[in-house]
Design a protein that fits this description.
14 strands, 3-stranded mixed sheet, 644 residues, alpha/beta, single chain
């Protein structure tokens, strides 16, 4: 080990509050002369100080926008239409950019907890913007509840996860508004084509109905994967683009999927970008589709996955559902999607009162009005969709099959399966306790016996209380089966299902990749004699799975709790995530939230030569004069999102 002459970083760096004192300390530290361990500490402190300075900057911008020499004290108490014009000169910024700055400053003043967390450096400008823009359409009371409920943890969430949480809370508070918002935007579905500065074309299909958009995307993904497996080189995104062109090209009208694949293969260009690495078939789990003859195994496809409460499908409540990779959807849309995916694999996550998983069930029953026959031709090579229902033990125990026409068989099946899980848990617990008692009594006899020959052997069966011999045999059979599974290379389907439902996503702390899209990773590798058991498994996406080969160390102190240690020596915990988030109960606001679309369909031409066409927003009827309500301006010039 070589000795390095590193500069010392104060031990109390993490305790210094953001502000002048921390700024002085940070200014004296040269980042190039500290140890690898301290560079991470320094980065975290700089982030807190930067967030603090961002808050100060926005406060100064707001005060400059209110500066008025003609008013008492030189400050206007209300905004005026010309507010911010001087800021445009000072910052060399557009009205839209200045408006965004002032919107965040005003929000920090209105929401005191948000402003305090920002000034303390606990939340940065990006996350403040997500909270403010994500609640801009909500009533004041709902916006305050969403922001106050998330401000404490917002700094620890990735932007995408924070957006998801904002949407989930907003739609849980006002399910009727969420459904109205979806319906009104769906009415504005449209297609726009724009020529870029380079001469290429961007085509956007916007505000499509979710079920149709999901089906379209799944088919494009499946065709692209087939083309890739057939030997089409290049990035999967490039192949998807060629699939879309081939499907809609007039020359391919009425073409079969095989003919579409041929057209995609023929569309390859010599200078198409190539992937950085080729998927390794040796690392594929046994249920992955093999590569077709003459081609390589395709890139793992996105899998349709709907997570919705059983009570929501039974119309007992209107809690929002989740479509991983897409976002939070209202209850009505979730019911529509579930009904159209009767052919999917229906899983059921039974939770305790804290939202933790206690049973991972699977059912072949469907509601009477739901057909298991696909409503559209099956997509070849596409992974089977998954519909995951979640329900608490208390709710499932309280359901009576006869009270829900059409759901009788499904509810009865779930209640029966849960009873079997409970029986198995009771028998396994009794078996463990019996073994412990037998071990303790055997040890006591060995200590008290005068001669070794006087010992009397004890068996766990003699101490197996609370059930009969058949229960002991069932527990022993389960133990033998688990012992065989523990030595296998890949987990069984049941164990894989338990792990994906327990952990929800990739277990690297900031990653949000769905567990269904991830690889089931051994925390202690098989090469190091790690067992294939729940306490040694967790989902990890392809990128994060490779981190263990790049100096990161992973441990699982208890099932579902993952601790990562970086090459610099810092540890990061990823605690268990509840299957069901703790969302607020519905409460209609006194003042309705806005649900009007920001853009409107019209009969104008689809083609637009300007790559950044101007958008004009119609103010709400009750909007005050002057600047639009906070958060509205920032939506005017957002670029059209890509379709994938």
């Amino acid at each position: 080990m070589f000795d390095h002459d590193y500069d010392e970083v104060p031990a109390e760096l993490e305790e210094l509050p953001a502000g002048a004192a921390l700024a002085v300390v940070l200014e004296r530290i040269d980042p190039t002369r500290v140890s690898p361990y301290d560079t991470v500490r320094l980065l975290a402190a700089q982030r807190r100080q930067l967030a603090h300075q961002q808050a100060r900057f926005h406060l100064a911008a707001r005060e400059a926008s209110l500066a008025d020499p003609d008013e008492p004290g030189g400050r206007a108490e209300v905004d005026v239409p010309a507010a911010g014009d001087e800021l445009r000169v000072v910052l060399a910024a557009s009205r839209t950019a200045v408006g965004r700055i002032l919107d965040l400053a005003e929000a920090a003043e209105r929401h005191t907890r948000l402003g305090a967390a920002w000034r303390a450096g606990l939340i940065d400008e990006q996350r403040v913007g997500i909270l403010v823009r994500g609640t801009a359409a909500l009533s004041e009371e709902h916006a305050r509840e969403v922001i106050d409920g998330l401000v404490d943890e917002a700094g620890t969430l990735t932007p995408s996860r924070l957006i998801d949480q904002v949407q989930a809370r907003a739609k849980a508070l006002d399910p009727e508004w969420a459904q109205t918002l979806y319906r009104k935007h769906r009415r504005q579905r449209r297609v726009r084509a724009r020529c870029t500065e380079a001469g290429t074309v961007n085509i956007s299909a916007m505000d499509l109905p979710l079920p149709g958009g999901v089906s379209f995307t799944r088919r494009v993904n499946a065709l692209a994967a087939r083309a890739q497996a057939a030997g089409r080189a290049g990035l999967i995104e490039t192949i998807r683009a060629d699939v879309v062109l081939a499907v809609f090209h007039p020359a391919n009208a009425g073409a079969t999927d095989d003919q579409i694949i041929d057209a995609v293969l023929a569309a390859a260009l010599p200078d198409d970008p190539q992937p950085r690495r080729t998927p390794d078939p040796a690392g594929a789990p046994p249920d992955d589709p093999p590569a077709s003859a003459g081609g390589r195994r395709p890139t793992r496809q996105s899998r349709f996955e709907l997570r919705v409460g059983l009570a929501t499908l039974l119309q007992i409540d209107d809690r929002p559902a989740r479509l991983p990779g897409w976002g939070v959807i209202p209850a009505g849309t979730a019911r529509e999607l579930a009904a159209s995916h009767g052919d999917a694999e229906w899983r059921v996550a039974v939770t305790d009162r804290t939202g933790a998983l206690v049973a991972a069930l699977i059912t072949r029953h469907r509601p009477d009005q739901t057909s298991t026959t696909p409503q559209e031709p099956p997509i070849e090579s596409a992974p089977r969709p998954v519909v995951e229902l979640h329900v608490s033990e208390a709710v499932l125990d309280g359901l009576h099959p006869g009270d829900h026409p059409g759901w009788t068989r499904l509810i009865a099946d779930l209640r029966h399966q849960l009873a079997c899980w409970r029986t198995a848990r009771t028998e396994d617990r009794a078996a463990r306790e019996a073994e412990e008692r037998a071990t303790h009594e055997q040890a006591a006899q060995e200590r008290s016996a005068e001669e070794p020959g006087a010992l009397v052997g004890l068996t766990p069966f003699g101490h197996f209380r609370g059930t009969d011999a058949a229960g002991w045999e069932r527990a022993a059979a389960r133990r033998r089966r688990r012992a065989r599974e523990a030595l296998a290379r890949f987990p069984s389907a049941a164990l894989r299902r338990w792990i994906t439902m327990r952990d929800r996503s990739c277990v690297f702390p900031p990653c949000g990749a769905s567990a269904l899209e991830s690889e089931i990773d051994h925390t202690l590798s098989v090469l190091e004699h790690g067992l294939t058991v729940g306490a040694n498994l967790g989902p990890a996406c392809g990128h994060d799975h490779d981190l263990k080969d790049q100096g990161w160390r992973l441990e699982q102190p208890r099932p579902g709790w993952f601790t990562w240690t970086s090459p610099t020596g810092h540890t990061y915990d990823r605690p268990p995530r509840p299957v069901v988030d703790d969302l607020p109960a519905p409460r209609p606001p006194a003042t309705p939230s806005r649900a009007e679309p920001h853009q409107y369909a019209d009969d104008g031409p689809m083609w637009e030569n300007d790559p950044s066409p101007p958008h004009v927003e119609t103010p709400a009827p009750d909007a005050p004069p002057g600047r639009p309500p906070p958060g509205r301006r920032s939506l005017l010039d957002d670029p059209d999102p890509p379709p994938f």
